[in-house]
Amino acid sequence: MFDRLTGREVELLFCLLCFKETNTAGGKKMKEEKVYNIGVLIGNAHTAHPKELIQGICQGAKECTCNLLFFLGTQSSVFSQDIYGYKMGEDYDYQFNVIYDYALLGNLDALIISYGTLCIFLENQDRDNFFRRFQELPCIVLEEKGLEGDGNYIISGNYSGMTDIMKHLVADHGYKNIVYLSGPKNNTDAIERKEAYLDVMKKHQIPVVDTMIEYGDYSEFVEEQVERLLDSNPKTEAIVCANDEMAIAAYKVCAKRGMVVGRDVAVTGYDDFSLAQTMEPPLTTAEQNGYDMGYRALMEAINLCKGYGKIQLRLPAKLKKRCSCGCTYNNQPEKIDFQNKEEAYFYAEKKIKEITEGCILHPENRKLTEYVRSHVKSLVLYVMNYFLFSGTVRNVEYDKKGAIGILNLIINGTYKDFISTFALLNTIEAFLKELAGYAEDTVKKINVLELNTAIQNSIYYRFCRRKEEEHVLFKRKSLMEPLFERSILECIDDEKEVYYQTALQLQKRNVPRAYMYVFDQPVEHRKEEEWKLPAKMYLASYCEDTNAMSFSQNERPVVDTEKGFCDYLPKEAGHILLSFILYSEEKQYGLLMCESEYQEIPSLYVTSLQIGNILRFLEMNKKERKIQRELAAKVKIIEEKNEVLNFISEYDQLTGILNRRGFGENALRLNKRSKDKKAYFIFADLDHLKEINDCFGHSEGDYAISKAALLLKDSLGAEGVAGRLGGDEFVAMIISDESDFTRHYKQRMKQAMEELNSNSGKSYYVEFSIGIIEFVCNDNFDLSHMLKEADAALYDAKKERRASIKK
């Protein structure tokens, strides 16, 4: 029964049966499937092979109930080597190595560790010690055998793949002078591939010396190593590279030396990355399907979460012979001869299978295979039916559009990221040339060849146009990056607002979900020091859909081993988050997690660097403001102390009024601000101070001085200043336009002294003798001259004082 139903009908029938079972069990709701949170540690994320792994893992996640958290090593100093001739920022690339430890705060269900992509940068770290950090988690290791070589792993058939390449070069081409560009010494893939090279050379009795082997880092920036190989081995016939990225460097060096790859020297790679077929000439390599490895890794990680057994898998690597090794394409199409339509359709099925399998990058994905096969089938049957078996000459332009339309559905459709455009075009071209060779009708032969040309031109044009659009979009994003930083720096004095604006800016860039986790205090991490991940982090801000929020420092939700990153995700599955380290020079600030497609890794990486710089500036700004506050507090203390010192230096300690220095400075200021106003200078002498001291004691003398100073000060109000010159001498200055001021002032002072003496209870009088002179404030004010004139007036006043102050 089921073989007559489509896949979708079977799926619907299965759902119906499940619904019936749940209803018969008492109408209970179907149990929700658990959402698994899978972490992925992957390094060298800017290069081709890691991108393929990421793509395969993401595709697998779309078919499962899970979330993905990528912890990305985005070392980038090597790119400046190619552009500027030296490595910019190399001193701080080590900061990216610590991002993998952040997975320990994820509260993850399982972990995928792409050790082959990250061990390149781990320098002196021991492999088993690295794996022990994560031994509490179910782990799938890629391109390595895991803890003590006995963990869960998926690894390429490195030895057999490289052996096939070497046998092809030695046996088929007869090369003997073959040099080898190996991967890193601590990398299992590199070790096994190098072993295959050495074994084949040994088997064919070809000697290998040390100068025939160099070690690279799996990147395309290994031209220096290629140069050394060619300089040390001038008769080199073939350069065998441990991966395709390093083969790019071999191509560049050969071109620089005027050597034609495939003619003057053979070059091979390993991986069959997406650009291998488009290199000039196309690269001979061993196919290691990164998509497939990533997809399988995700599926096996889910199985580990469900309690399934150990997985130890080697994926076969298939030799891909192309022109870079010296092979030439067979331009002669296969001769076909159909006796009847049944044979023709048998041939069509064969071609449908070849074209489908040749262009898809992820053969394990059945939906992808069915999607591509259905369209390839439509194209093949369309062409064969109407170009070969139709009795009439058709509208060729119409048929061209029809065929190109079908191809566009494949290349630009749902699974466009999983299709090799160039492989599709090559297999289509071979198919059409075979048909043209079969066609007896010259018109039809020409039509088929014209169709092939039209397809090649149209698809190449669309492909180039798409790449150009992607490039233009990336350039526009790059131009917008400075605005990201500028808008946030405008609020740098408000830490909470800085985090809010960061989340808001990410939201404006169509990032549907982003989280910024920070440490309580920045962590200083130097190159030679061992990194130790702090036990806690804090959620500083986030954006989800249309919402954005930030927290002040004492409100931030905590992240630790009990409540990890995954606990802040929405409950439903399907979220893919890319994590980037936030650092600036030696300082680590935290982690940025963004939900986004893997294609956005370059732009988000740039954004993360900007945020790291913003956080550094925020830290510096906070320190500066703290220093400013401390400085302001110290200045205030100094000012207060200065006020005390000024008071001590300007004021009389006994009476609290100005001393000689203080009076002089204040009298000059009063004169200056009262220019052209009438003023009075007063010289006062406390009567018989010696008699008070001798008869009643010095304490009573001090009392008399203090009361006299208070009487003088109170008599002036706000318009004058008073001071004690020393001993029993006092001086004052007042601004007043009162008529007959001198007489009135002496009367007021006399009344004040009488009132004091009547209420003091003392056995002596406290009385002044006063001399007053009048003047107008001006620029020629001379204090010493005023004192002399006032003293003369005082002399006359003393003649009227009591003979004794005793009552």
Return the average pLDDT rounded to an integer: 85
Shape: elongated
Amount of beta strand:
15-25%
Content-based structural category: alpha/beta
The rounded Rg comes to: 46 Å
DSSP helix fraction = 40-55%
Describe what you observe in this structure:
The protein is α/β, with parallel strands linked by helices and 807 residues long. It has 22 helices and 22 strands. The strands form 4 sheets. Strands 1, 2, 3, 4, 5, 11, 13, 14, 15, 16, 17 and 18 form a 12-stranded mixed sheet that branches. Helix 12 runs antiparallel to helix 13 and helix 15 packs parallel to helix 17.
Features:
807 residues; alpha/beta; twelve-stranded mixed sheet; four-stranded parallel sheet; disordered N terminus
List the helices and strands and how they pair.
Blueprint lengths: L6 H18 L11 E7 L5 H15 L3 E7 L4 H8 L25 E5 H4 L8 H6 L6 E4 L10 E4 L1 H15 L5 E5 L5 H16 L9 E3 L7 H10 L5 E4 L2 H13 L9 E3 L16 E3 L2 H16 L6 E4 L2 E3 L20 H19 L6 H22 L8 H16 L9 H18 L3 H48 L5 H14 L4 E12 L12 E8 L2 E4 L7 E2 L16 E9 L2 E9 L5 H50 L9 H14 L4 E9 L2 H8 L1 H19 L3 E7 L2 E7 L5 H19 L8 E9 L6 H16 L9
Parallel strand pairs: 1-2, 1-3, 2-17, 3-4, 4-5, 5-11, 6-7, 6-8, 8-9
Antiparallel strand pairs: 10-12, 13-14, 13-18, 14-15, 14-16, 17-18, 19-21, 19-22, 20-21
Helix pairs in contact: 2-10, 6-7, 11-12, 11-14, 12-13, 13-15, 14-15, 15-16, 15-17, 19-20
